[in-house]
Structures are given as C-alpha cells and as structure tokens.
Design brief:
The protein has 13 helices and twelve strands. With about 325 residues, it is an alpha/beta fold. It binds NADPH dihydro-nicotinamide-adenine-dinucleotide phosphate and ketopantoate (KPL).
C-alpha cells in the first residue's frame, strides 16, 4: 500500500482553493491554514465554480495556524508534512516572515513549494531552510475568491515547477518531479524546468505591467486596452522595461518575441470581459498588494544594473502610494 502524501496548504484563497481540490483528487491528505475565511471554510468547506472543473465542493482539514496543524499531526501520531504549499500573497521582508510562520510544520524532509507571483521571493525561504527542497512555482490561473470560501476560475490552470536555486541536489529535483506527478494525477497541468527563473521572468512581463495598471485603473485588462489608443502601447512599453531587466539578470531568452507573446494573451481576450489581476482584486477590496514582490524588486534590479526603468518606476511610486493609502484606511 502506498502512503498518501501529507500536504499543508498555507493561504487558502483564490489559488490555494484550486490546489486543495487538485491535490485531494490526487489522493493527498490536505490541511489548509485559513485566516479571514476560516469560519466559512470550517463550517461549509470551499466551493469552486470553474470552466475547467465545473462546480466542486472540497472539505480539507481546516486550521487557523501552522502550529495547530503540527499539534493535530502529533496528537494523531501522523507523519510530518511531505509538502508545504505556500499560496498566500508574497510579502518578502514582512515581520514575521512566511518562513518563520511555517517553522512548526517544516520537518527535515518537507519540500516547500512557493506558488506565488513575483521576483526574488525565494531568498528568505532558502535562508531559513537551507537543507529543504525549495520549489519555485509559476502559476497561470486567473481566479478570484468572490466571498469567503467561494472561488471562481476559468479554464486555464498551469503550474511551472523548478528548484531554487536551479542547481540543487537530486533529492530536491525529485521533490519537484513528485509534485508534478501529483498535480497531473489530480487533473491539473504541470511542467518541470531546469531553470524556472526564466519562466518567472516571462510571467513578470504580465504581472509587473498588467497587475499595477489594472489596480490603478480599477479596470480589467480588456477595459484598459479599450480606454484609449495609447493604453496597449503603454503596457507594451512596461513589458519591454521588465524584459530588459530580465536580460540584464542573465535571461537573454526574454526578448521582443516573449513580450509580444505575453501581450498577445491579453489581446486575445478582447471581446470577452477580460481578467481581473490579483492586484486589482486586492485594491478593490482594500487589501495589501504585492507591490514589492511584483514591481519593486524588478525596479531595484533594473536600477542596480543600469537598465532604464523610468515607466516602471512611475507605476511603482503610484501603486506603492495606493497600497499605503489602503493600509491607512484599513487602520481607520
Ligand atoms: N488570483 C489569481 O488570479 C492569481 C494569483 N497568483 C498569485 O498567487 C498567490 C496567491 O494569490 P491569491 O490566491 O489570489 O491570493 P488570495 O488573497 O486570494 O489568497 C491568499 C490567502 O492567504 C491567506 N493568508 C495570508 N496570510 C495568512 C496567514 N498568516 N495565515 C493564514 N492565512 C493567510 C489570506 O487570508 P486573508 O483573507 O485573511 O488575507 C488568503 O485567504 C499570489 O502570489 C498571487 O500573486 C498567480 C496567478 C493568478
Ligand atoms: C494575470 C494573472 C491572472 C495570470 O494568471 C495573474 O497572475 C494574477 O492575477 O496575478
């Protein structure tokens, strides 16, 4: 008999809920750490409305903290967690860090999979857990938590997986392969990459441009493009700055073709409602935005390497100020 993998999912929002479903379908024991949606999830589980999976109800074990998850496992004599999937927003440098919060559930053999947007999000995890496999995962999955425990998504779900750093021991690569197998067994889509940072930079073309632009404009991507003849060209110019930073960081494959491919994915949505990037959803709900992971880190890398990032820096200044004003409003 094979042992069912134990998975701890940290941050059961839009993305996390979909991976709870996929991993349960793959036969895993999933424990989800929830915060604002704890009561809804503990009482009614999670509801997914999606083109890809239809209408689905999932009921993982729900806890409030990683410590509670560790205590439950200890009390039931269960092994530790094989994987921790981090699907909370990425706030590198926050206090306490995500890595510190998860200390109770990370054992010597636990692989940590970061399913998050952004650049430079892995360093603090590697520093906290130098011996554990760190899997950097790039996710294409437009999804929104429409009310606590209710998530809607379309037909796209794709996970690109690689170790951090890309040169890693065979056991760490093996943890990536096993995760790919579980995602596929659960009906998801996953690919493995020798250097997933190339994929991360390609995704940054999308996130560092569309996410803050849509958040600032309070408009979906398609509505932004329709708003003025200059809009699409402006987003293209932002993408070109991100691409120049990627190349300066050694990712020569992020060129004009990649920019047009990523811009083309949004242009192909003209005639539909388009998508609401996660940062726009955060802005509309007054939540903290991933400004540093998605925009600030790219601007800083660009300036360190002498790359012109004037437009991107302007967007950074505006979205940072919006984030601060939302924080001030939350604090009353
Ligand atoms: N949504 C999308 O379309 C896409 C998102 N992404 C990326 O995926 C990642 C996750 O995004 P998304 O799912 O949209 O985010 P959500 O805000 O929908 O979900 C994050 C969840 O994490 C919870 N959380 C945060 N901190 C804690 C904590 N300390 N303890 C317990 N729970 C916690 C939040 O709780 P609370 O509600 O209390 O804040 C929330 O439920 C981000 O990096 C995002 O950029 C990538 C592709 C698409
Ligand atoms: C743009 C999108 C939806 C792509 O999956 C995304 O990554 C986000 O909303 O943050």
């Amino acid at each position: 008999m094979t042992t069912r993998p134990n998975i701890l999912l940290f941050g059961a929002g839009a993305i996390g809920t979909i991976y709870i479903h996929i991993l349960q379908q793959a036969g895993c024991n999933v424990t989800a750490v929830c915060r604002s949606n704890y009561a809804a999830a503990a009482t009614n589980g999670f509801h997914i409305s999606s083109q890809k999976y239809g209408n689905v109800h999932v009921s993982p074990t729900v806890v409030r903290t990683p410590q509670e998850a560790a205590d439950n496992h200890k009390a039931s004599g269960s092994r530790g967690f094989d994987y921790v999937l981090v699907t909370a927003k990425a706030f590198p440098g926050s206090s306490p860090t995500g890595a510190e919060l998860l200390r109770p559930v990370v054992g010597p053999d636990t692989a940590i999979a970061l399913v998050q947007n952004g650049i430079g999000i892995e360093d603090e995890w590697k520093a906290a857990y130098p011996e554990n496999p760190i899997l950097s995962c790039v996710v294409y999955l437009p999804a929104t938590q429409t009310s606590p425990g209710h998530v809607s998504m379309g037909d796209l779900e794709r996970l690109e997986i690689g170790t951090f750093p890309c040169e890693a021991p065979a056991a760490h690569k093996g943890a990536g392969e096993k995760l790919k197998g579980l995602i596929e067994a659960g009906g998801g889509t996953a690919t493995l990459h020798d250097d997933v940072q190339l994929k991360r930079w390609s995704k940054a073309l999308v996130n560092s441009s569309w996410n803050p632009v849509c958040a600032l404009a309070r408009s979906r991507d398609v509505a932004v493009m329709a708003s003025s003849p200059a809009a699409t060209e402006y987003v293209r110019a932002l993408m070109r700055e991100v691409a120049a930073v990627a190349r300066a960081c050694g990712y020569g494959g992020i060129g004009e073709e990649e920019v047009e491919m990523q811009l083309g994915r949004a242009k192909a949505r003209v005639g539909t409602r388009g998508i609401e990037p996660s940062m726009m959803a955060d802005a509309l709900h007054g939540r903290r935005m991933e400004v540093e992971a998605i925009v600030g880190n790219v601007v800083r890398l660009g300036k360190e390497r002498g790359v012109g990032v004037e437009r991107l820096e302007g967007v950074y200044v505006l979205v940072k100020a919006l984030d601060e004003s939302l924080a001030a409003a939350r604090e009353g």
